[in-house]
UniProtKB/TrEMBL annotation:
It comes from Opuntia streptacantha (Prickly pear cactus). GO terms for cellular component: mitochondrial matrix. Pfam families: MAM33. This is Mitochondrial acidic protein MAM33.
Length: 209
């Protein structure tokens, strides 16, 4: 019985793997102006984009809002299309950096929070035990507008959405392909990528740039 169950599971994993491998990727696009793609970003949880602005280094990390909040039956397209962006602005010789958490849409950008904290090696690491500043919405309108102008001046706006959305698609696709392979390998008890034929399919998305 166990062998039959394993065979059924492996067959299902293979079918889904082949289905995913044949999915058409989004049009390939380069990074936004003045930004460069961080090497190895597809295989890490750290920054995706980086640029220099005067004496500052700006790093951008991104993930889907759906990966943070539990899905809601009532969620609309705006929530599905929202990206959660972490921006780090650092300066040489300073241990702390300015961290901004943003909600990014195809046609808009909103700031959720602004904090001055130590520089990060990986994105989205927050120490909940430390004060990180007031709620952004509680700041007066003039200060909120000034922060929006601050990030706009550094090229952080809704124009980043198309690239970051496409980049996340590639990352999600790679992770899903790897999941089917690794689970299949575990079920079959194989170290090499042989549990699911086509594991080295050249159609698997590669890091763009």
């Amino acid at each position: 019985v166990s062998s039959a169950v394993n065979s059924m599971l492996l067959r299902s994993l293979k079918d889904h793997y082949l289905e995913v491998s044949n999915m058409a990727p989004p049009p390939k696009m380069g990074p936004p102006a003045e930004f460069t793609i961080v090497k190895g970003a597809l295989d890490s949880t750290g920054p995706v984009l980086r640029k220099n602005y005067k004496n500052e280094e700006i790093s951008i990390s991104v993930m889907r809002l759906a990966n943070i909040a539990a899905p809601d039956d009532d969620e609309d397209d705006d929530e599905i299309n929202q990206l959660f962006v972490h921006v780090e602005v650092s300066k040489p010789g300073q241990e702390k950096a300015l961290h901004l958490l943003l909600g990014l849409y195809p046609d808009a950008l909103g700031i959720h929070s602004v904090a001055l904290r130590p520089k990060l090696q990986d994105g989205f690491i927050i120490d909940m035990n430390k004060y990180t500043g007031p709620l952004f919405e509680n700041l007066d309108e003039e200060t909120r507008d000034a922060f929006h102008n601050y990030i706009e001046e550094r090229g952080i706006n809704e124009s980043l959405f198309p690239f970051l959305q496409a980049w996340l698609y590639v990352k999600d696709h790679r992770n899903l392909m790897r999941w089917f392979r690794s689970v299949g390998n575990f079920i079959k008890g194989t170290d090499a990528a042989k549990a699911i034929p086509g594991a080295n399919d050249p159609k698997e998305a590669a890091e763009s740039g």
